[in-house]
């Protein structure tokens, strides 16, 4: 295990409760609702075989399994694998790295990467993870991957009234570098622009690439309104606009998370030719 991977494992095992994340804040609730809706829209019907790479404690693997999908989860954090196995319904889960999956070629109808890309700082490592997802997906099958928008961190800090001069300085650097400063919040992570996310997917061999904004452009308003008298109405409005503007190009990067979908090549030879 390399140093950066060890740091990510330590972060989730010792410092951050990923299992409760999607229930804590309006942004996270929007993320969960819209991700589940997009999975329903974009995945093949059950009982398709789904590989959930970087699936954490099973936030999406579990409802997919309950809906009749045949799901296997792979995560680099052993504690997440234990949580996924222990839930109801239990998830078939193993420890593994998105860059070197312990799975055979073409064994799944669809593969999810709903976390690994933003923990890989180097472009070639992200492309490597995407290529692994393509490898384990049957020809023509779906690959869905999540990324964090380049602008999510500073927008989030602003909603919490934490947009200090230091944060603004880091936000200016982030525009160019894409690399999050863990001393301000979160951990080491890479935040994408939409065109480079599409480029990485195409370099990995994916076809028919499309991108959705997950939380929509009003997630910051829902965050700022939390606990106030209009919180529920603003949340519902944000959710409706997230659905309406999901694929609107000009508004996609205003979401905190991006969801990219593509198709694995129809033949293994076409993938090999691209490498």
SSE pattern:
HHEHEHEEHEHHEHEHHEH
Distance from N terminus to C terminus (CA atoms, Å) equals 25 Å
CATH topology: Rossmann fold
For the record, the CATH class is Alpha Beta
Radius of gyration, in angstroms, nearest whole number: 18 Å
Question: What about the largest sheet?
Answer: 8 strands, mixed
Average residue-wise pLDDT: 94
Name the quaternary structure: single chain
The CATH homology group name: Vaccinia Virus protein VP39
Q: Which second-level CATH architecture applies?
A: 3-Layer(aba) Sandwich
Shape call: globular
Number of strands: 8
Quote the beta fraction. Answer: 15-25%
* Helical/strand content category: alpha/beta
Low-confidence residue ranges: 270-275
Number of helices in the DSSP assignment:
11
Quick summary:
The protein has 275 residues and is of the alpha/beta class. It is built from eleven helices and eight strands. Strands 1, 2, 3, 4, 5, 6, 7 and 8 form an eight-stranded mixed β-sheet that branches.
């Amino acid at each position: 295990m390399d140093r950066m991977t060890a740091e990510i494992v330590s972060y989730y095992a010792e410092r951050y409760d990923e299992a409760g994340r999607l229930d804590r804040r309006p942004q996270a609730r929007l993320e969960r609702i819209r991700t589940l809706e997009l999975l329903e829209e974009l995945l093949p019907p059950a009982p398709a075989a789904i590989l959930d790479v970087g699936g954490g404690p099973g936030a999406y693997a579990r409802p997919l399994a309950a809906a009749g999908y045949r799901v296997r989860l792979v995560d680099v954090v052993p504690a997440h694998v234990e949580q996924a196995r222990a839930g109801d319904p239990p998830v078939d889960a193993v420890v593994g790295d998105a860059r070197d999956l312990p799975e055979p070629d073409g064994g799944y109808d669809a593969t999810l990467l709903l976390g690994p890309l933003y923990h890989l700082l180097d472009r070639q490592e992200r492309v490597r993870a995407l290529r692994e997802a393509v490898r384990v997906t049957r020809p023509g099958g779906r690959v869905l991957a999540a990324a964090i928008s380049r602008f999510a961190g500073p927008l989030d800090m602003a909603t919490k009234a934490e947009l200090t001069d230091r944060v603004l300085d880091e936000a200016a650097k982030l525009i160019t570098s894409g690399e999050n400063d863990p001393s301000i919040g979160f951990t080491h992570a890479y935040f994408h622009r939409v065109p480079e996310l599409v480029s990485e997917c195409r370099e990995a061999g994916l076809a028919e690439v499309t991108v959705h904004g997950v939380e929509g452009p009003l997630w910051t308003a829902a965050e700022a309104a939390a606990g106030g008298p209009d919180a529920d109405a603003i949340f519902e409005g944000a959710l409706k606009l997230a659905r309406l503007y999901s694929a609107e190009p000009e508004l996609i990067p205003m979401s905190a998370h991006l969801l990219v979908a593509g198709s694995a090549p129809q033949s293994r030879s076409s993938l090999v030719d691209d490498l």
